[in-house]
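USER: My hope is that you can spare some time for a protein that puzzles me. I am handing you a single protein, as its sequence and its fold in token form. Walk me, if you will, through where the backbone shape changes along the chain. The protein I mean follows directly.
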Amino acid sequence: MKARKVRHLDPDGTLADNAQRVVAVRIDELFDFVPAVLDPSRVKKLHNMRIAAKRLRYVLEVSSSVCFGPYALTATKRVRELQDLLGEIHDCDVQLPRVQQIRAELSDDAVAELVRRAGGAADLDPALASGLPHSDDWDGLAALEHYLAVRRGLLYERFLTVWQDIERSALRARLEYAIAERPSVDANETGRVETTQ
């Protein structure tokens, strides 16, 4: 997924103002995947949403504490949680077809072996089906395929819950407000940054 261009960056402007522009574009990028990702079959959209979450997370991690209001740090954690969850879903989406492909290849090998064993006979003796190559692998592959499918379903349900919580908590609006805030440096000796409210 190609990142959206960030317009109107000002090389002479402040880091906070430029970071605000970048974060605003990355917020739009992330939230624009809804409602498409609310369909569990939209694998590519879910993967692209993970990439958008990663981009938003990384820019927030380097800019939140020095450029923005305090909610930006909370939003960073939520976006990281979302990205991690989408990454787990993506892992299942990548692994499941591979397992299915291996099972299909082993099935093709078994069929070829049965044809060889039949040797042109008019019918197939059931005894010839025993001891086929990779027969011990079938149970493991079937279990792995079921595991990945069920795990993906559970993770997707968790994603829906997390996304619903993100929307209920008004993460977008609160983050947009936080990136418009600017922290002020406290004059005390600790050098801590405190936010003006």
